[in-house]
Amino acid sequence: MSVSVYFSNQIVQIAVGTRGKKGSLKQVFTTMAPEGSIINGIIMDADALGAHIKRFWEANNIPKKDVYLVVNSNKIAGKKLEVPNLSGKKTLEFIKREFADMQREDEENTLAYTSIGVNKKTKVKLLYAEMAPKEQLREFMQVFASMGISLKGIISGEGSIIGYAQDTLTKLAKTFILQIINGNLVSNVLFVDGTFSYYNSVRCFNEPGTPEYLDDLGRSLNQLEQFMSTEKIQSPVERIFVAGTDNNNLNAYNQVIRDHGVDSSAELVNTGLSTNPQLLHESQTALFAVSGLFDQGSASNFLTFFSVKDDEEEKMNPQLKRYIIAVVATLAAMLIGLGIAITFRLIQQSKYDEAKSYNSSPAVVMQSAEYDAAVDKRDSMLAKYNSINTVVETIDSYPVCSDSVIETIEETARGYAKIEILSFDAEEGRVTFSAKADDVNDIYKYIDKLLEEKIFMTVDHTGYTYSDTDKLYDIHVTCTLAESVGRDE
User: Fold this and answer.
1) Which end of the chain is more exposed for a tag (fewer CB within 10 A), N or C?
2) Of residues 154, 144, 233, 250, the one with CA closest to residue 196
3) Whole-number Å distance between alpha carbons of 79 and 87
4) Quick one: pLDDT at residue 12?
């Protein structure tokens, strides 16, 4: 029996079953980690997280062998790569060069990759390659070690879910979207013509189950449509598979999807999951954990290459046998020195008793307690500091209507229309302005130019009106800025 555990934020999901090319699910468990103990896959309070999961694990008699961890973290970088047919070692060297621009000098990293097919034109391998900090992996291993569990593998949520979709959903459709709803995090996977194309995760700030929350989900699908338009992908989306909701919400959700201009309808994913109807909804909700039961090969496991350096260092010690022989040869001489050692030990014992008496004194014990309290205070402040940094990173992802954005809007309009900025919604990242022109066709040409600008995620507009006073055609345009646009200024 295998166990797959999913970490991202507060929701911890555990899938128990048989791991293989076709995973088989037996049970699903869900628990809420202590608040603030893990944020975006980064452990903030290892002791609280480990203690909570240990209690939950033992209370539910979950197996402690063959345990894999699936992690969604913004510290794990991923890329879709085309790689020539190379040996395993040369493939790693190729991937390492591709990540060279993301490698920090003060950070050790390790790699993993998942095979996602072959380029039909060039006949080279397609891989989804990933890089994770070794220190982060060590923290995960230490948390489970405190529970008496030795992790057999650590896999990224992106690579795991892409591999699951490649193995199962490509048999049902060639161009499709898989949307996984997990609390306030929604992840979307786009496959085009049977091959993985794009992955994104969006944080929803509205309460799950509300109309506003459904609108957040629908907007994330619209972003994929915008991506397909930008990349000039002609293949229509055949199906939209959704995991993490129930059948009762689909009618309302499909209406929201249509309102966002998405033609396909959503349907619950059920391929490769439990055949037990009572487990089907739980397995959909915990799809990231369940995907860890689908074995994508040893290369997708970060721990496969994490220990290679240590293994090589052991092999680089050819004198080990000679050292053992030398130890045996000197054993006889050591026996002779045993008598001297006993005498020396008696002298040292006297010194030890003196040092013990000093360390047991009330003054030293009090100083030690003060030091321990200072260390605890420092660790607590460090955890708060890391939490603040995470919040700052999230804030930095919001776009800003900067001078360069306004300049782009005005420059794009040059020769077509006169514009007037009406408003900017900072929370939604939306710029609303009026475009006026003598010829209504010039306004629509201006809209087409806006759609070509990569700084806009969406471009919406109302119908035009004609002003007898100005003798001009007027149209209101709303542009949603892409993530982090304007932050450089």
Assistant:
1) C
2) 233
3) 20
4) 94
Distance, in Å, from the CA atom of 140 to the CA atom of 315, rounded to the nearest integer, reads 27
| Segment 116-137 mean pLDDT | 88
The rounded distance, in Å, linking the Cα atoms of 187 and 244 is 11
Outline where 82-200 has alpha helix (H).
88-98, 134-145, 157-168
Displacement of CA 338 from its chain's centroid (Å): 59
What is the residue whose two structure tokens read 């923290």? 139
Distance CA 216, CA 204 (A): 6
What are the φ and ψ backbone dihedral angles of 485, each rounded to 5 degrees? -60, 135
- Is residue 178 within 8 Å of residue 168, measured between CB atoms? no
What the block records as the tokens of 417 is 């229309």
Mark 392-402 as b/e (b = at least 16 C-beta within 10 Å): eeeeeebbbbb
% of the chain residues with pLDDT over 70: 94
DSSP letter, residue 296 = -
**Assessment of whether the complete model's pTM goes beyond 0.70:** no
Tell me how far CA of residue 345 lies from CA of 288, 330, 335, 336, in angstroms. Answer: 59, 21, 15, 15
Whether the predicted pLDDT of 319 surpasses 60: no
More confident residue, 49 or 85: 49
Q: Which residue has the tokens 């050692």?
A: 341
